[in-house]
Fold these 3 entries.
Entry 1:
Amino acid sequence: MSRCIEEILTGILTRNYPDSLSDAEWRDLILVARANSLLPRVASILLNSVDCDLYIPPKAHAHLIASIRHETLFHNQVLHEVKLVNSRVSRALNRKLIVLKGAGYVIAGSKAAKGRIFSDIDLLLLKDDIPKVERALHLFGFVSDTDSEYDQKYYREWAHEIPPLRHFQRGTVLDVHHNLVPIVSGRAPDIELFLESTVETDYGVEVLRPAAMFLHSAIHLFFSEEFTNGFRDLSDLSLLLDEIVNDIDEVNCLLELAENTGFENELFLAFRYLEKVFNKQIPADIKHGLKQPLPSGIKLALADFIFGKVLAANHRLIDVKFRGTAEWLAFVRGHLLKMPFNILVKHTASKLWRSIVKSVTGDVENRHHVQKRDVKD
């Protein structure tokens, strides 16, 4: 290839379009964008931006049109599902349902919703409301995705959410949260600070205000142990930042919320890799608004090694040296952030043992789960 396909992809995502692309580059662009769950976003930019005059060959155009149709259908299904779920659980709530992450972007009509495809719908509610909501969802056809005693204990005692719930016919997956990071991590914030940072929508539910939405996206990315979609998530952050960077109230809210919840480090990392990976210009006054001691020296060099590689576009066409090592370090880092070392050892040993048993006996624990294919129309 004459040019790095990641640079071409990043340029399109940031509206710095190439003058032209060869047939091979179009092929590689579509392959890499699709592998990183970004093809609908790329399609939306190329087909709908008035400042883009890049020639699109017919075969590439067909792929772009198909991805936009998929996105439109998917988003309509998400909106329908959220309204349906809210109608079933609203009576069990002491406050309105809050929709997070990808579904939240769609509900809010955020720029980050454009081209965004995701696998589940994330909901946030008061911890005291969870038993009532869970019962209502069970009656509505949602069942737990796991019957493993260990998983149930892990989620309900240590995590920030209950086990995922899957609708037995439609296959919709709900992640019901009562906090943003695992309780056992010791980093779980006073969730009231986020509950106070919401806005109402026309769909009968709430979403986080733009500043809180950006911070939550940064927390979710830099608290993670897996970065399969890291490049896409960084693209989300880029679009979310565009919505607040010129709004002094939202900027102040972002900085205050990060300070009050103890997530200034995650905000710093979001700014740093938006600059390094997406060439995003972060205003100096925003970066200087961070108050707590931030990574430096060896710690910062290690972060640059890890995130400079795991946040690169993920595809065999993208040559990232030592990516495997960086992914392993990110995996360890993410787990250490989420749980104390003694619990991590226990958790790892349990997962390893269950994996061995499963390889020998099959998935006995979950074999009796109701699957969509088991239900006759």
Note: Residues 43 and 64 are 5 Å apart (CA to CA).
Entry 2:
Amino acid sequence: MRTAQRRSARGRPPGPQAAAPAGRRRPARHRPWPAWCAALALAVALGLPTAVPRAQARPADGTATALPSLPAPDAHGLDLTQWREVPGFDGRLGEATFLTDAVFAPAGAGKPSIDPVRKPVKVRIHLPAHYDPAKRYPVLYLLHGGAADVKQWSEPGDGDIAHTLEGTAFDGIVVMPEGGKAGWYSDWPGHTDGNFAPQWETFHIRQLLPWIDANFATRAERSGRAVAGASMGGLGALKYAAAHRDLFSSVGVFSGGTDIRPAAAQRTVNDSLWFYGAAFSWTGLLDGTYRVTGSTAHRMETVFGPASGWAAFNPVQVAATEASYKAYDGRLALYAGTGESDIHEWNEALHAPLTARGVTHRYCTGPGGHEMRLWQQDLRNFLDYIHGSGTRSCPNGWAPPTS
């Protein structure tokens, strides 16, 4: 990937990248973690709040909406350990912490190097104003990018979901799950050097999605669900849309990876598995057993399986099939800046077969790079597009391609 393309909002690598800094070599052995990493991790650890028992948010006081009670906190393979209000969001942003067998699963010939294998994983849930359990709300599953975490879309100064949604046609629930710094929204068929593997798709689709429907006032059918994401999360949205046409009705992709076959995309995956491996948030970030060593081909197969099976989920290949993304006709939107180099090229490569197959979709492009400030406007535009507000122009001063 070109060095210029690696610049991103708040210093994060772009997608589908979750890579180490440009120019870093891919060693065959573990490298010691820099001293500053350990010091930073220790500082963060000392500042973390002590876990508290599962509890409800403070009562509504007339100016804030209290978090709702959860009728099925332990369900669908998820054990809830904490349900708390995230301060500063007027009672509308909750954070759930789960234990699940999907994060992580033992894999490989040896015993997993971590004990216990199950690690706490978080999901943030943003509720509409004046949330009413007697109503039914649409749900957006919003996926974070590479090198990021569960907080990316919600924190002020980053995705700032509360303000990003203001003035849009969307009045629903936003689910922002952890997906791993280099999880690639996949059930890993391979494993880390420590003999365990994340099963992110299982966690998101088979466990979290029905858990959300069991605990919140959702429109629990395909027409009530959308999936979207930025960077690595854009690839995840397209992967989930291809595999689960019965669950989602709309797809939004912001600077997303659309093809895992090009050499530049594979270098990104390769680097991410050396630098992050199966780590998420601060879990495993300084532990070499979470990493995957070996060749690029080995690392690609660890996350995605043999190349012979990629056509089932790799977006550009899916788009070229007869089925294509026709289930999302008129409800699929792509956004990519021309300053994003490879990513723009890959989105062009997805736009072409979608057009050839007659899949109506929005494709917006123009000057700009891999930046959260653009993704926020992309998200607003996508939500207005799929909820029929009448907004038909592209965001960011962009426009559809002329050819």
Note: The longest strand covers residues 78-85.
Entry 3:
Amino acid sequence: MIDAASSTAHCPLCSSGAAALTLPHPSRSMLSDGRVIPRALTKMSCLACGSAFHASSAAEVDIRAIYDDDYTLASAAPKSDAARARAYGDWIRGEFNPPRSILEIGCGSGALLSELLQTWPDAHACGVDPALPKTTQSQRNITLVRGFVEDIPTVAGTFDLIVAVNVIEHTTSPSAFLRSLHDHLAPNGRIVIICPDGHSPNVELLFFDHLYSLTRDGLRICGRGAALAAEKQIPAPNNIGDFQMSVFTAQTDNSHTPPADATDAARLHSDRQSYLDGWRMLDQFLLERSRSTANLLSFGAGQTAALLRAYAPQTWARVASLVLDDPTEAWNLGPPVALYRHAVQTPGRPTLIATTPRVQQAVAKRLERDGLYPVTWNELIPR
């Protein structure tokens, strides 16, 4: 999948020098849908634009193979998927006037398009995703297609609003991806790119199929390579988290676009190093904190639990059961799933908190009140 012979010390976006990043595990990493693969996560951080990227180039055909029938992120947790769609829908609707036509690349289950059309019912929408769930059907004014950008129906024409949420970071060439979107953009249309915020390290840096962690500077560079100007770049609302929105137009004169915030690329590299060091040390940290208990509970069974399975495998091997309030939201991570209220029948049991670090202290208080022994790790990895 990644050719070690193609290793480079220069940023593929701006051609500046780059520095290697710490391996969170010496021999394994994780895809964004939770699958663990036997490949180390070898990434680098640009010392100019601040973007992070794989140390070796990726073959397009190999990356595309990831998003086959085994890629189940869109259907893993339906309630969470719907909640994300509502949050992204509110954010996008707040930035744009009603469009006549919408294209979404990487539409997942189609939930976001459905959400947008509740407010813009007169628009026609087309969604394209290589891992479109087989149970998902087109609707009256939403056409859903299984495939990539080149599979957009030719009869669809051009679009006033093109949306790609958490897609560009998966592409082997972000500039080429934006060029392909530009080809489908109507005059005076807008391209909305939402992706993880590369200005501070967070869990997206740990996904093998995130080929880039993009800063605002990096996104602007990619846009210029596609004859697009960044009209607006804004961070996500707090309820969405560590994400950013860039709005591109087909404007070729960049003289009136607002300047990008300066990126302290050296500090960003250092911050990423510290963050990945935390993940590298996490397994031993958790073994000590859990007293090497051989019968752990895991409170949580989603993305964070999947990351623990990938990067703290010795600790995860001791997890006997996953507990949560709604078992229907559990990812398929191996151990059996049980209702949380049943778990509290065994007081004092060590329970690994498999939730995002920012909420671990609140979760720990709940577990303590219910008589469990919470195992937190947000002191080591705070976000």
Note: DSSP finds eleven helices and 18 strands in the chain.
